[in-house]
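Worked Example 4.2. Consider the chain below.
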Amino acid sequence: MSIKLIAIDLDDTLLRDDISISDYTKKTLQAALAKGVRIVIATGRMFQAARPWGQAIGLGDVPMICYTGALTGLCESGKIIRNVTVEKEKALDILSTIKEEGWYAHTYIDDELHVPYYDWRTKAYEHQCRVKAHVDGEAFYHPEKEPTKILVCEYYDQKMKEIDGILRKKYGDAVNQVKSKPYFFEMNHKDCSKGNAIRAMCALYGISIENTMTFGNGNNDVSMLSITPWSFAVANASDSAKAAASHETASNNEDGVAKAVEKYVLEG
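Applying the procedure from the previous section yields the following structure tokens:
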């Protein structure tokens, strides 16, 4: 077995619960790079919120698949390689429904976070992702540009179930829908997923999917965990991620990614 590309989710997979990365993990990934293995970050995060972690690990100008596959950029240079947006008519329809239902939501346009109003959820997201939100008021529901992603945030389980049901019924055939966390319902272009973005990276580099290793923990990782025999769910992963993965490794807090890379790539 020869692994030539490793794609890794960030939150709850590579990053620990306290949003840190151990020195052991950094050294292990750098050793894989030195061996000639390509590393790709694949996250639901914004590009600007993901770049500091690639830089902190010292990976160089590696590709970062962001927004669950909708945008790909280069870590160090900041160059955007690909940005697939939600068609304006569809986006305006979805935002109209969000307004009518009174849900709290985000849009992401040109890698900037937009909200209709500021509350504790905005503050928590800013802290988690280390970004600043643009508070748009009524203009939030009528953006001039097409969004890369639309996200509805709801922390109450029963309310999220209602939101999930409505959005899947109305827009399930129009956009890609995924829940990266139980309280985040995300929508982007129909053809966008982490799995499709990784296939595109493999095609670009001339690498077979059978020589690709993937790591994830959540529902938005299923598309990339299901395409290769070298997919790993961390121990803290969702049931859907574990079902899609071919293997399981230690949790994010126990350096599960690094342990698998060390065993199967550096020692293999």
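The two ends are 8 Å apart (CA to CA). DSSP finds ten helices and 14 strands in the chain. Compare this with Example 4.1 before moving on.
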